[in-house]
Amino acid sequence: TFTPRVFSGIQPSGGLTLGNYLGALKRFVEKQDEGGETIYCLVDMHAITVWQDPTKLRHQTREMAAGFIAAGIDPARSILFNQSQVTAHVELAWIFNCVARMGWMGRMTQWKDKAGKNSENASLGLFAYPALMAADILAYKATHVPVGEDQKQHLELTRDIAAKFNNDYGVTFFPMTEPVIEGAATRVMSLRDGSKKMSKSDPSDQSRINLTDDADSIAAKIRKAKTDPEPLPDTLDGLKDRPEARNLVNIYAALAGMSAADVVKEYAGAQFGSFKPKLAELAVAKLSPITTEMNRLMQDPAEIDRILGRGAAQAEAIARPIINEVYDIVGM
Ligand code: ADP
Ligand code: NA
Fold first, then answer.
1. Which label site among 78, 131, 151, 160 has the fewest CB atoms less than 10 Å from its CB?
2. Short-list 142, 158, 157, 74, CA closest to 319
3. In this structure, which CATH number among 3.40.50.620, 1.10.10.10, 3.40.1180.10, 3.40.1190.20 belongs to the domain 5-181+301-330?
């Protein structure tokens, strides 16, 4: 019988943002609570594709683990671990580096965005990033990957790599993994620029809400968020060319568990001067219990390390036989 296996990850290259929470982490918890097999990874090997201060990386990895648990990931029901502790990821990534084509990688929009005009100076790891991501997923033969919209192209590439591996070696080995891109906020935008996604690696802290922010800074960031002078329209159509306004509505909807259409219905005609405090209140109500729990967990870093260590052993037990089969298929 077919059992869905869910895998996903987040880079500990900074703290968790509201974008990570709504687009990814909240979905991870839902998938866990639906009762499927769920495997979640702090992808530190991805984080170092851009230089990370070692002390900060170690801290951010623990803090992110605390954030996952505080948000509802239960280490008794999900496997939670750190990518660098399970070597299957980099082993399979090398094989996929030899399967994937340069041209495929060169077409990735995240590569183009992150490397920019100075691609000669970007790390080789940043270029190869999607092959490591494919390995993260396929080392477990995961069938479903909950992600934000920005990862859609990388998931398509994962399927291309799986298909080419299967074809090159004449096997039906890797599954065609399905992206799961769901919810009212699959692409949360920067609070300062409606054309950029909210990201932990954005140099401006004002552009994002962090899960570690206190109530006052959440309220201040939302109050200062860029909008236009128009009130909220009667229907979603009225937000078509208003990306900043649409973003705040999407955030409200995702936090409240409503559709964006229902939020607009409820606030039709309201000015952002009155909508923003409502949004801030909602954001604080939803996020502050997570922040509090995260801070509590961070007081015992040794316990976090124990949880990650147990998770790594569980992950290893699933991935190792799969990697051994891959070596056998390849002739090693
Ligand atoms: P970041 O850009 O913050 O470093 P990651 O690359 O670590 O994020 O992505 C981790 C997960 O969070 C991915 O599933 C990604 O799609 C999701 N995600 C990141 N930013 C956003 C966003 N602004 N809105 C929705 N989902 C997001
Ligand atoms: Na990213």
1. 160
2. 142
3. 3.40.50.620
Say yes or no: CB of residue 244 within 6 Å of ligand 1.
Answer: no
Query: Is 226 assigned a catalytic role?
Result: no
Is the ipTM above a cut-off of 0.85? yes
Domain residue limits, the chain: 5-181+301-330, 205-295
Segments of the chain scoring below 50 in pLDDT: none
**Four-CA torsion 251, 71, 27, 285, nearest 10 degrees:** -30
Kindly report, residue by residue over 123-175, the tens digit of the pLDDT.
999 999 999 999 999 999 999 999 999 999 999 999 999 999 999 999 999 99
Are 39 and 77 a contacting pair, CB within 8 Å? no
Active-site hit among 26, 31, 197, 221: 197
Q: Report the b/e string of 206-220 with b at 16+ CB within 10 A.
A: ebbbbbbbeeeebbe
- Ligand 1, atom 16, lies closest to the CA of 148
Told to judge if 117 belongs to the known catalytic residues of this protein, a careful annotator would answer: no
Instruction: Give the number of whichever ligand sits closest to the CA of residue 208.
Output: 1
